[in-house]
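Listing 4. Sequential folding, example run.
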Amino acid sequence: MTATAVQIVRLADSLPDDFEALRHEASAESYRFIEGLREEWLAGHYGGRDERFVTFAAFQEGELAGIGALTPDPYDPAPDLLRVRHVYVRPLHRGAGIGRVLAAALIQQGLDLAPRLSLRAADPRATAFWEANGFTPDTSGTRRSHLLTR
């Protein structure tokens, strides 16, 4: 599989049909943040009322391969800051460039809306991934690990 076959879709009305399978895969890997995305979606945070709440799904050959979101940073209310959150690529789709394409879409959309983006990398692989995508470590004592500035 190649990254050229990746389609990024901004979600507006509902989570993708295969979201429950993705959620179970994330849970099996002890990634609980996908449950947070589900809860926020069901609470109505996404879907158009506030343009700062954005969810992108990545599809490869029609199959849901990954997901990610942007929101106001829940731990830092600075008006010039958005947070990259809930980013997950399903195990069978890793290594095909889907994460890079999804990250690029989130970063582009995020920097169109705010001059700074934050995130919390969950582990050393995530740290390396986000640093390769332009984020720098942040040790300011916030609940974030990295920042990217326009």
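-- end of first protein; second protein begins --
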Amino acid sequence: MSGDIWKFSDQIDDVDVEMLRRDFITLREGMEYYHLNEKPMVRLAREAGAVYKIGKMVRVRRTIFEAYLRRIMMIETKETGKKDEELDGRRK
């Protein structure tokens, strides 16, 4: 956990703090925390390379998964920004 968490203390609740303490989460915990259904959670975790399977036990490496979600969000934000700029250019 980084030392910058205090900057966001007004936005973090006990559930977030508990999640930050865990390195690995179950798929069920991920589904509840990230508000995803099972198929998107599994697909995104696999795309991120964050799935660890030992026998029948499956865990998701939270740090890798969240980094992947951040990358996706940044890419989509940039693409949306470009589309908005293109639309603004056409309107002028």
